[in-house]
Design goal:
Elements (H helix, E strand, L loop, with lengths): L15 H9 L7 H34 L4 H5 L4 H35 L5 H4 L8 H8 L2 H27 L1 H6 L5 H42 L3 H12 L2 H22 L5 E5 L3 E6 L9 E7 H14 L2 E4 L1 H10 L4 E2 L5 H16 L31
Parallel strand pairs: 1-4
Antiparallel strand pairs: 1-2, 2-3, 3-5
């Protein structure tokens, strides 16, 4: 994608291939505000419900840590093991909170852009070390938007903090008259409530930033008309795409021919391989027209459609092969096959006009000129 293409020229929605390439390169809509708000809310909610118990465990651990057993005075070599044990106990106390924040951070980051992992995203990009590019980022539109976001966060969080402190000012004043342990519990509870209120205020910033990141990503991914044309040419040049296009074209052509079988006057078949649908209008000048043909599976579908719609099926293997290899769809039959096809059509028309008691219509013998006889693989019979 050309770097100098202006945003005004990118008027087309991104293709699936463009979005897939962006994902492979680690580009997607991401909002750090959504992740930060989710992590803070999850952590403060956890502390709100487990704060008293956690505070008691912390106080107990600290008290035990500042108490020395006489055995440590007699055997100082035991101190490292005791210190490691206290560190491990402290880690176990905060492990649930750490695990919760990691899980929430991963889940929240996927809310905006989904789960994606790309090695290109974590690989070093030396182009970012360019001082000129760094200055452009510092004073570009992105930096201005980040400044606005920072000012908005400061205003929202500041207002929430002032509201929480003014609402709990009497409780803060009473803490000085409490004993140490109750004062720590009350202080911890108040701090968690304050943090939860402030975190909830971040939802406003997170919602706005999430919407903006979606819009910004979609705008960055837009393409010019020329880029779409180039992508289509590139895709059409790939062998697998060409094969898929040809397969689709064959399917569509086969469906169109199946739909035209009902308009045929007769289906001439080589029961093992070929089916030919012919149409003839006696009121018009001209030879019969081939309106559908197929081999193998398509031939079987043509015969099944003929049975369903009541079109007569006339087995004549040499004639079916001759028509298949000499005549295209929507083309009149060659002059050398006029007599053979005329006998078949006359026979079919006579069958449709037969009256009870008038006797049977004799099935004609079909003779194909030697120069128009073919084998099933399309080679002339006379060459063998």
């Amino acid at each position: 994608m050309a770097e100098d293409t202006s945003a005004e020229d990118r008027t087309e929605e991104p293709t699936a291939r463009r979005l897939s390439q962006a994902t492979e390169e680690g580009e997607s809509a991401r909002s750090s505000e959504v992740t930060a708000a989710a992590v803070v809310i999850a952590a403060t909610t956890y502390l709100f419900y487990t704060g008293p118990q956690l505070t008691e465990k912390i106080i107990s651990t600290f008290s035990a840590g500042f108490t020395l057993d006489r055995k440590f005075l007699d055997s100082p070599q035991l101190l490292p093991a005791a210190f490691a044990s206290m560190v491990f106990d402290g880690f176990l106390m905060i492990a649930p909170l750490l695990a919760l924040t990691v899980i929430v951070a991963i889940a929240a980051s996927a809310i905006v852009g989904g789960f994606h992992f790309s090695m290109k995203a974590v690989s070093p990009k030396f182009g970012r070390m360019n001082p000129a590019a760094g200055l452009a980022r510092m004073f570009g539109s992105h930096a201005i938007i980040e400044l606005i976001k920072a000012m908005a966060k400061f205003g929202v969080v500041g207002a929430a903090t002032v509201w929480v402190l003014s609402d709990q000012i009497e409780v803060f004043n009473s803490i000085g008259a409490m004993a140490l342990e109750p004062a720590l519990v009350v202080t911890g509870t108040l701090l968690v409530k304050a943090a939860l209120s402030i975190a909830c205020s971040l939802l406003l910033i997170a919602a706005a930033d999430g919407a903006y990141q979606h819009w910004s990503f979609s705008r960055r991914m837009r393409m010019t008309k020329q880029e779409i044309r180039d992508e289509m040419k590139d895709m059409e040049g790939q062998p697998e795409v060409k094969a898929q296009i040809r397969r689709r074209q064959r399917e569509m052509a086969g469906k169109r021919m199946i739909d035209r079988v009902k308009d045929a006057d007769v289906i001439i078949t080589n029961p093992d391989h070929f089916s030919i649908a012919l149409s003839y209008d006696p009121s018009r000048d001209g030879a019969p027209t081939l309106i559908a043909k197929g081999s193998d599976l398509l031939a079987l579908r043509i015969r099944e459609e003929a049975k369903r719609t009541g079109v007569y099926i006339f087995p004549a293997p040499p004639l079916a092969r001759a028509l298949y290899f000499t005549t295209k769809v929507d083309q009149q039959i060659p002059e050398g096959l006029y007599v053979a096809v005329a006998r078949v059509i006359a026979y079919v028309f006579n069958l449709s006009n037969i009256r009870p008691g008038s006797g049977d219509v004799v099935k004609p013998a079909i003779v194909v000129p030697e120069e128009l006889r073919f084998n099933s693989d399309g080679t002339p019979e006379k060459t063998q």
